[in-house]
């Protein structure tokens, strides 16, 4: 079997998911070619995904540009006719719509290859961008043989748009191996104003019953070191947020919620891990609200951060199958998340406290409740671990995708 993957500009989960699928399919003897922007290849090294995976640059921009889109469609059509794949799998509505047009004109003696499109994101609210998104939905619904969606709300939208076959996309979080030593280059310098004696006190502050609940591959010593790194005092709760610092992720809402914790003694320490276009604005907002927030930047030790946290908060305006939410379940950390997109499907109703989106008081109250109720926190930890045991892995995602390609090829 020969497969063609198509994706547009991506800086995160979509590109990682495509790379995982490409590598998994190639490992099963399938020849794979990925078509997408050269920068995406530089960022995610598709050619290093393993033998049998190739990459060819097709510049699919992150927003509509008619001349560039026409060039991308023409190039895709020529490449698909030359490659003659048994199936084409595009990721994202932009790439899916361009691929649908290209596939329609890429007929070979063997006919038109079937097209699968995975929809990864929700539409923006209102404005010209929302109208463009609707056009892309209609093109994909009418041009794709199969539409896979990362959440039930997206599946409902695509059925309403006329998609003839709609299914569930399996998007697992990649497990990150961890040792007791967190590399210095992946974390900010430990604060100089945290003396060694204080760090030792913090390490001693980790109760034995809590250490027993922490994942076996995240030692209690690592948890204590991370708390010391951010200057957490003995008895001070550590609240963690992690993700791309972009509007969709809702970190402004998290800052508004944190401003309501100032009556807790000691005041919880908020740590936000990640980078993105809103980084400077969020820092300024934290200062204007009088908050002490540690912005940790991009981290390679997310499981350790989760194990060190007393509560993990996912304040997103929308999520599909959130990768960091899956990691939080695996870490067994108490979770507070917004009830949006695929969050209820991933966490269920018992492994997280789910609150309405864009409601800072409810978000703050939920965090306050978890921090003030050890029995509730323990129940959430156990439920998260139970939920994590049923999460799909990479093999399940690859098997599901291959089954869909083979079904359509028949």
Quick gist of this model?
The protein has two domains: 2-172 and 394-409, Glycogen Phosphorylase B (Rossmann fold), CATH 3.40.50; 184-389, Glycogen Phosphorylase B (Rossmann fold, 3-Layer(aba) Sandwich), CATH 3.40.50. It contains 17 helices and 13 strands. The protein has helices spanning 13-27, 38-44, 66-83, 93-104, 127-143, 152-160, 196-204, 208-213, 220-229, 251-258, 279-288, 302-308, 323-331, 343-347, 360-372, 374-389, 394-409; strands at 2-7, 31-36, 53-57, 87-91, 115-119, 146-149, 166-168, 238-242, 269-273, 293-297, 311-314, 335-338, 353-355.
Topology:
Layout: E1 2-7, H1 13-27, E2 31-36, H2 38-44, E3 53-57, H3 66-83, E4 87-91, H4 93-104, E5 115-119, H5 127-143, E6 146-149, H6 152-160, E7 166-168, H7 196-204, H8 208-213, H9 220-229, E8 238-242, H10 251-258, E9 269-273, H11 279-288, E10 293-297, H12 302-308, E11 311-314, H13 323-331, E12 335-338, H14 343-347, E13 353-355, H15 360-372, H16 374-389, H17 394-409
Parallel strand pairs: 1-2, 1-4, 2-3, 4-5, 5-6, 6-7, 8-9, 8-11, 9-10, 11-12, 12-13
Helix pairs in contact: 1-17, 3-4, 4-5, 7-9, 9-12, 10-15, 12-13, 13-16
């Amino acid at each position: 079997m020969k497969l063609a993957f198509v994706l547009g500009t991506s800086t995160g989960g979509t590109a990682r998911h495509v790379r995982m699928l490409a590598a998994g399919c190639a490992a099963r003897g399938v020849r794979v070619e990925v078509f997408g922007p050269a920068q995406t290849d530089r960022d995610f090294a598709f050619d290093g995904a393993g033998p049998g995976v190739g990459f060819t640059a097709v510049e699919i921009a992150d927003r509509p540009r008619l001349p560039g889109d026409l060039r991308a469609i023409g190039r895709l059509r020529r490449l698909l006719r030359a490659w003659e794949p048994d199936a084409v799998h595009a990721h994202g509505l932009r790439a899916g719509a361009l691929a649908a047009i290209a596939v329609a004109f890429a007929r070979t003696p063997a006919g038109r290859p079937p097209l699968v499109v995975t929809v990864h994101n929700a539409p923006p609210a209102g404005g010209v961008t929302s109208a463009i998104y609707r056009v892309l939905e209609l093109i994909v619904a009418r041009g794709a043989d199969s539409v896979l969606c990362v959440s039930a709300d997206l599946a409902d939208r695509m059925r309403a748009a006329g998609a003839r076959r709609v299914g569930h996309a399996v998007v697992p979080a990649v497990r990150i191996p961890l040792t007791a030593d967190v590399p210095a280059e992946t974390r900010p310098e430990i604060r100089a104003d945290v003396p060694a004696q204080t760090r030792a006190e913090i390490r001693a502050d980790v109760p034995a019953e809590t250490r027993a609940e922490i994942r076996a591959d995240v030692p209690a010593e690592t948890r204590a070191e991370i708390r010391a790194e951010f200057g957490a005092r003995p008895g001070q709760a550590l609240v963690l947020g992690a993700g791309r610092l972009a509007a969709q992720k809702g970190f402004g809402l998290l800052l508004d919620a944190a401003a309501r914790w100032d009556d807790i003694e000691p005041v919880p320490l908020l740590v936000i891990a990640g980078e993105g276009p809103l980084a400077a604005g969020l820092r300024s907002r934290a200062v204007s609200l009088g908050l002490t927030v540690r912005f940790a930047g991009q981290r390679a030790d997310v499981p350790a951060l989760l194990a060190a946290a007393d509560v993990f908060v996912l304040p997103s305006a929308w999520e599909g199958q959130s990768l960091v939410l899956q990691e939080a379940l695996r870490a067994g950390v108490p979770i507070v998340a917004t009830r949006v997109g695929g969050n209820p499907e991933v966490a269920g109703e018992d492994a997280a406290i789910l609150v309405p989106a864009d409601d800072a008081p409810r978000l703050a109250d939920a965090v306050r409740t978890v921090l003030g109720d050890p029995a509730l926190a323990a129940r959430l930890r156990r439920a998260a671990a139970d939920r994590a045991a049923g999460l799909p892995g990479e093999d399940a995602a690859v098997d599901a995708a291959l089954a869909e390609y083979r079904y359509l090829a028949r």
